[in-house]
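User: Hi! I'm working on a homework problem where we have to compare a predicted structure to a textbook description. Could you give me the structure for the chain below?
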Amino acid sequence: MTQRYWKKVAAFMAVAGVLAFGTPMTASDDVPSQEEIAEMINNPLSYLWMMAMQDDFVQMDGDVDGADKLKSNRFTVMPVMPMQLTEEYKLVLRPWLPLFSAKYPYGDPGNFNWVTGPDDKPIPTGIRATDYHGGIGDVGFWAALASNESAKPPFVWGVGVTAMFDTATRDQFGLGKNAAGPMGLAFYISDKWIAGVLAQHWVSYSGQNDRDHVALTDVQYVLRYRLTPETNIGMSPNAQYNWVTDDLTLPVGLGFDTLIKIGPLPVKIGMEAYKYVAYGNDDLHNDWHIRIFFVPVLPSPAWSRKPLF
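Assistant: Happy to help. Predicted structure tokens:
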């Protein structure tokens, strides 16, 4: 790891820590019960602050030699920071910082339809993998605006903007472009079911000239059955459609999540496994995907629950 890499990680975590703990709840604030926290943690527009951490392990496969030896691991830090803008409207800000460790092939980092060696000559026998490498991916965020009424179950919805920035320390860890676009979310939350989508669309507006234009739609679709107020089974994978290459990536799977306490700290933990049933590239594509998440619920800063304007 480079010194620059760790400086970026430290700076991001420092900012997130100040935002999360700089103005803690006062003793006069109402402290929600375990069951109330379980209800709110399922609502992406609740007032809970969370330091979401997610680890995604992907096993690749394809029609070339050595494809099944390629794999990647992405650990993502995603603080969730809602704040009350006015008496009627709230804003939910969710930045993300992805940290990669991956064994990737030689070739075009934006499109693995062809494979070359380090001397830019084709490799006729298949993929030649490198050793594992680590680094930062493309940092980004989404920000959703919702009224107080539209943030209340059972029907929850909000709209906003999303953006990604060309911060990857290796070409294979990012798109090589700065991109932005609209986002929206809509959820149905009942005593027994949680169903919804979080949709984002990015279009590149600047970045590296030798990288492909970005027109990418990401839809995280959620379907969970509530075994108890604290425990769910279901899935929440991310499907993507690349409008430039006309490729659909679609995983399906199953998992669980539950709310526990580590000392006084409520924490949502869970694991899901996905199989890719649609992918854009037969030569090299994602095959299996395991997602583990760890989401501590933080004290909501007092200022975030009061109208800022």
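For your comparison, note the following. The chain has a mean pLDDT of 84. Residues 249 and 279 are 4 Å apart (CA to CA). Good luck with the assignment!
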